[in-house]
Amino acid sequence: MHQSVLARMVKLRILGKSPAGAYLRLNEWIWNHLPHSLTTLPPLRAHGNLLHSLVRTSIARRQYFGTYFFRNRPQLELIRRLSNQRAIGSTLKMAFLGCSNGAEVYSILWTIRSGRPDLKVIAHAVDISKEILEVAQKGAYSFRAPELVEAPIFARMNGDELQDMFDVDGARGKN
After folding, report:
1. Beta carbons of 20 and 51 less than 8 angstroms apart
2. Rounded distance, CA 148 to CA 131, Å?
3. Rounded to 5 degrees, what angle do the CA atoms 158, 161, 162 make?
4. Confidence (pLDDT) at 48
5. Alpha-helical regions (H) of 36-158
6. CB distance 154 to 173 below 8 Å
7. How far apart are CA 83 and CA 126, in angstroms?
8. β-pair partners for 124
């Protein structure tokens, strides 16, 4: 179905409510109760594509930047063990794709450097969002209101890690 027709359907209001919302909820319930063998039939797949298009036009989409320092401790421990296998004074090159605000990048680099200060670490980090990449490049994070991130990014750190990893300046931590 043409996008402008879908957009008009979404904007339609009856008694202040969009009938598209009720239509989507009803179809979601039906779809979840249909046997898988029926949902793969071409007419139902076409209807599913229509529903998907309707959802995409009715929802304001935005990127989610939620991440944490020390988010995945088992991963950090594995990285620590792997870095210990490197020769003394060797170079370790790393690439981070989708680095978000840099919390995980800094967590990994801190883990490596705290265990192996002799390693020369070369890290390259990229993200699709220019705004969040600027936050990561600054390496300064607010304790009160994380920039562009709707998550408590320091929640998984203990006090010693916070002091070791950051120069704490009142309401900000600077890497």
Report:
1. no
2. 8
3. 85
4. 86
5. 36-39, 42-58, 73-84, 103-115, 130-138
6. yes
7. 22
8. 95
For residue 76 the two structure tokens come to 């950090």
Question: Which value, to the nearest 10 degrees, does the dihedral of the CA atoms of residues 17, 19, 25, 31 take?
Answer: -170
Q: Which fold has domain 73-174?
A: Rossmann fold (3.40.50)
* DSSP secondary structure letter of residue 14: B
Quick check: 93 and 125 in contact, CB under 8 A?
Answer: no
- What was the pLDDT predicted at 106? 94
- Per-residue confidence (pLDDT) for residue 5, from 0 to 100: 61
Please give the C-alpha separations between residue 124 and each of 5, 106, 128, 156, in angstroms, as whole numbers. Answer: 44, 12, 14, 24
Q: Please state, in angstroms and rounded to a whole number, the distance separating the CA atoms of residues 66 and 144.
A: 15
pLDDT at 3 over 80: no
pLDDT at 58: 66
Dist CA 140 CA 33 (whole Å):
48
Beta-strand pair 172-174/167-169: antiparallel
The pLDDT-based confidence of 12 (bands split at 50, 70, 90) is: low
Contact criterion met (CB below 8 Å) for 175 and 135:
no
> Given this model, what pLDDT does residue 70 score?
93
Would you call 85 helix, strand, or coil by DSSP? Answer: coil
